[in-house]
Amino acid sequence: MTHSVGPPSPGRRRPALRNWLRPQGSRFLVLGVSMAVGGLAGAVRSAMDGKGIWTILGTFGLGIVGVLIAVSYFVNYEDRRGRH
Fold it and tell me: Helices (DSSP H) in the chain: which residue ranges?
C-alpha cells in the first residue's frame, strides 16, 4: 500500500464536527466532574442562601452539562475500546 505525499485532499482537511463533540482525553473527564460537582453543589448552596431563581437554574444547568460531559466521556471510551 502506498501513501500519497502532500496535503490531504480538499474533502478531508477538517475533522468532522462529531469528533469535536466526543471528549477523548482524561482532561474532559476532569472538566466534566468538576463542572458537575461545582454546578450541583452551587445550585444547592444558592437555593439555601435564597438567591434568585436564575442564579439557581444557571448553576444547576452548569452541573447538568458537567454530568453530560462525564457520561459522554465514558460512552466514547467504551466505543473506542470496543472497536479494537
Answer: 17-20, 26-49, 53-83
